[in-house]
Specification:
The protein has 203 residues and is mainly alpha-helical. 51% of the residues lie in helices and 10% in strands. It has 6 helices and 4 strands, in the order αβαββααβαα. The strands form 2 sheets. The protein has a two-stranded antiparallel ribbon. A two-stranded antiparallel sheet has the order 2-3. A hairpin with a 4-residue loop joins strand 2 and strand 3 (94-97). The longest helix has 34 residues, at 2-35. The chain is globular and about 45 Å long.
């Protein structure tokens, strides 16, 4: 009689254990799939870079570049990704800036400070002082970035062909990161009405 009771109980417990293990494995797989996305993966080891294998492309550059006239604020603002290239990474969605967009933002800021000084666009001394303070920061940032990359491409003053990291793919990554974290605000990005006051610096 005892055996008749024990055997079904063991079968029940075995089936229950199998179902629980299956559920745990499925949950672990689901969490792994969720947290293995490149848009919320860890990024601080060993060097803080976007955890994604970006491809290289061959690009030819010319001087002067007529596609980017210094007076066209809209074209220069468009080279910086939305939200100034800020993304979120890590499971908690830590806000971080992408160096490429920070550097482009700085180039645009220096351009605008130069243009505004040359063409008399500053309305107040404070606007001029703020633009120059930003430019001073950007000179440091760009100097450090150029030295860090230490580009050894040979240039002759005309057209130059280089092997470059594909910045279009990087921009796509930034755009996809914004979609992944849609609805989570970037408190440090100026609202539209504030950004419009500094149009030359990009949004």
């Amino acid at each position: 009689m005892a055996a008749n009771v024990v055997f079904p109980a063991l079968v029940f417990l075995t089936v229950l254990s199998t179902l629980l293990n299956f559920g745990l494995l499925h949950r672990a797989y689901t969490l792994s799939a969720t947290f293995s996305s490149p848009y919320n993966s860890d990024y601080l080891s060993p060097v803080a870079e976007i955890p994604f294998p970006f491809r290289t492309v061959v690009k030819t550059f010319s001087q002067p570049d007529s596609d980017y006239p210094l007076t066209n604020d809209d074209i220069w603002a468009a080279i910086v990704s939305p939200k100034r290239g800020f993304i979120r990474l890590g499971s908690a969605g830590d806000p971080v800036a992408t160096a490429l967009n920070h550097q482009l933002h700085c180039v645009n800021g220096i351009r605008f400070a130069y243009r505004a000084t040359r063409d008399g666009l500053f309305r107040t001394d404070k606007q001029r002082a703020d633009a120059f303070a930003h430019a001073n920061h950007c000179f440091d940032l760009l100097r450090q970035s150029i030295l860090c990359r230490a580009d050894t491409s040979l240039v002759n003053g005309g057209e130059t062909t280089r092997v470059c990291r594909d910045w279009d793919q990087i921009r796509e990554f930034v755009d996809e990161s914004h979609k992944f974290w849609e609805g989570v605000p970037y408190d440090y990005v100026p609202p539209a009405e504030e950004a419009s006051k500094a149009k030359g610096y990009g949004e």
